[in-house]
Automatic annotation (TrEMBL), chain A:
This is RNA polymerase II transcription factor B subunit 2. One of its GO terms (biological process) is transcription by RNA polymerase II. Keywords: DNA damage, DNA repair, Nucleus, Transcription, Transcription regulation. The lineage of its organism: Eukaryota, Fungi, Dikarya, Ascomycota, Pezizomycotina. GO terms for molecular function: ATPase activator activity; double-stranded DNA binding. It comes from Calycina marina.
UniProtKB/TrEMBL annotation, chain B:
It comes from Calycina marina. One of its GO terms (cellular component) is transcription factor TFIIH holo complex. It comes from the Eukaryota. This is General transcription and DNA repair factor IIH subunit TFB5. Transmembrane segments: none annotated. Component of the general transcription and DNA repair factor IIH (TFIIH) core complex, which is involved in general and transcription-coupled nucleotide excision repair (NER) of damaged DNA and, when complexed to TFIIK, in RNA transcription by RNA polymerase II. In NER, TFIIH acts by opening DNA around the lesion to allow the excision of the damaged oligonucleotide and its replacement by a new DNA fragment. In transcription, TFIIH has an essential role in transcription initiation. In NER, TFIIH acts by opening DNA around the lesion to allow the excision of the damaged oligonucleotide and its replacement by a new DNA fragment. In transcription, TFIIH has an essential role in transcription initiation. When the pre-initiation complex (PIC) has been established, TFIIH is required for promoter opening and promoter escape.
Length: 477, 76
């Protein structure tokens, strides 16, 4: 998937239908899933179906879709049914297929949009507030907690020198999520792991989700109710920054979660008033869309700039692969050291070179060339933006370097693997042709051979239904 | 009725595919279906094993492949 934070939602798709049913009892969850996870066409479907009293014949739904957009339609419907939002009746001879929203989701989304019900699902704002807690203070708190976690990861590269201020539960979580290995936990096992490396290069929002999913998986082991934890997280996403909320309406699992989130910097609990909690920018943007994501970054830049830190761009890349980075932050230097060979370090500058070896090393650690390039791009020095090519709307980084990094990756990554299902042994060419065409329309086809009457798809559920309904139609003739 | 088989589609260069076919020839533990000259379907649980084997073989075959010559460590 193109958006790294969307990848985190693959976890959700693996949950069983009963879990979804319980999740959708909370209006905030229904709204968050609707806002964050659905393609535009699927949103339109949901909105149209929302106030319909009877199931809609699938054929009527098809009339809203332009004939040449069948792929988008299939994609939207498959996402909706995988997330257990719509139910499509099984096809039979005398009853055409019908589509309808599942009752729990419909009820919750109606509540979420129009208000009503007594569910506390959007948090209970508290009348009392704490004058000391300003938005700036919350930003600073979130930044320092989050950077603490990143520092811990980065320092484990340099030999396990932990910063010390991180709580035990967070380090345990990072270890169990295989982002770092504790020294001595196995032969050669020491410091940061592959997944830890790619974690470091992700966007903040994606990082937060990665950590939260780890936490959810862990909480299941501790006997906590993952549904309650999940719906609590979705609730956090709908809270307002700078507003105080009360903890008295929360369940025990949710209180435990809250304490953990304090360590991550997602919420802040003032010491004087332990029954109040304040969501920080990290949590209020959990379920917002891409534009709000950028404002997380903007929020952090503001926080860093106000503390007198460096401004955004600090890296200069020359066409001869030399790299100069104007920074003194150990975090940034450590990240750069993941994929460059550093030679010199001055008080405010590190200089190094991007080599085949250093990129190869990074790729072996699970970092992709695209991640490296994206990192360099977002942190490019303003001077690079002033080159004639960049001013004309061209690339900011020297194209030779970008191409070379990609070529180096191709040299090490010789295999592309796609998990899925191979379909073969069709009765006749017509059956093969219909099925492979359908697979292409719904966007799951990866490879096909007309000669062998064989094709490969990434998902088989819809195709299985298609084959069955096709069989039924054939039999009817 | 068509059959569906779970597996992993692998896209590779013909040269690498030859190596995979060679590895598989030992005990047929990897390949489910040989599709065409650059596509294969292999067993899901064997992907990482296979990647490791290929890296080993390539490391043995391609001893020196550094077009930049010796890493120019001395130019600072």
């Amino acid at each position: 998937m193109s958006d790294p934070s969307l990848a985190s939602f693959e976890y959700l798709e693996k949950l069983p239908g009963t879990t979804f049913n319980k999740l959708y009892e909370q209006p905030s969850t229904a709204l968050a899933i609707f806002r964050r996870m659905l393609p535009h066409l699927a949103k339109t479907f949901v909105m149209t179906l929302l106030y319909m009293s009877k199931p809609l014949p699938l054929a009527d739904l098809d009339e809203w879709v332009e004939p040449n957009s069948q792929r988008e339609r299939g994609d939207a419907l498959s996402t909706l049914s995988r997330l257990h939002i719509v139910a499509i009746t099984a096809p039979s001879r005398d009853n055409p297929q019908h589509v309808s929203l599942l009752p729990n989701f419909r009820k919750s989304l109606r509540y979420a949009l129009t208000g009503g019900g007594n569910h506390h699902s959007f948090g209970v704002p508290s009348q009392d507030s704490d004058p000391d807690v300003t938005i700036e203070a919350l930003d600073e708190y979130a930044t320092s907690q989050w950077e603490g976690i990143l520092h811990y990861l980065v320092h484990s590269v340099g030999g396990g020198r932990a910063s010390g201020k991180l709580s035990e539960s967070v380090t345990t979580l990072l270890t169990s999520g295989d982002l770092v290995r504790r020294p001595g936990s196995g032969p050669g096992a020491h410091g940061i792991t592959k997944s830890g490396f790619s974690f470091l290069l992700q966007e903040v929002n994606a990082q937060v989700w990665t950590l939260l999913l780890l936490f959810i998986e862990n909480s299941e082991l501790l006997g906590m109710n993952s549904v309650e934890v999940l719906s609590f997280l979705f609730m956090l996403g709908s809270l307002e920054l700078g507003q105080a909320y009360t903890t008295t309406t929360l369940t025990e699992s949710q209180l435990h979660t809250l304490n953990q989130l304090v360590d991550f910097g997602l919420v802040y609990i003032p010491e004087s008033t332990p029954t109040l909690f304040f969501p920080t920018r990290l949590s209020t943007t959990l379920t917002s869309d891409a534009t709000a994501l950028r404002s997380v970054g903007a929020g952090f830049d503001a926080a860093i700039a106000s503390r007198g830190g460096e401004s955004q761009g600090f890296i200069i890349i020359e066409t001869n692969y030399r790299m100069y980075a104007y920074t003194s932050s150990p975090l940034q230097i450590a990240v750069l050291a993941l994929f460059t060979k550093l030679y010199i370090r001055y008080p405010n500058l590190v200089a190094g070179k991007i080599t085949q070896k250093s990129i190869g090393e990074a790729i072996r650690h699970g970092i992709t060339a695209d991640q490296v390039i994206a990192y360099l791009n977002t942190h490019a020095h303003p001077q690079l933006h002033k080159t004639p090519a960049a001013l004309a709307g061209g690339p900011v980084l020297p194209p030779t370097v970008v191409d070379q990094i990609k070529l180096w990756q191709l040299e090490t990554e010789r295999m592309e693997t796609i998990p899925g299902f191979l379909f073969k042994d069709f009765q006749d060419f017509k059956e093969y042709n219909d099925c492979s065409k359908y697979a292409d329309e719904i966007g799951v086809l990866q490879w096909k051979s007309d000669g062998k009457r064989t094709f490969f798809v990434t998902r088989h559920e819809q195709l299985r239904d298609f084959i069955k309904s096709r069989k039924a139609r054939e039999a009817a003739k | 009725m068509p059959r569906a088989i779970r597996g992993v589609l692998v896209k590779v260069d013909p040269s690498i595919k030859a190596i995979i076919v060679n590895i598989d020839a030992e005990n047929h533990a990897f390949i489910i279906e040989d599709l065409d000259e650059d596509h294969l379907v292999i067993k899901e649980n064997m992907v990482s094993v296979l990647k490791g084997r290929i890296d080993e073989i390539l490391a043995a075959v391609l001893t020196v492949s550094n077009p930049n010559g010796a890493e120019s460590d001395s130019d600072y």
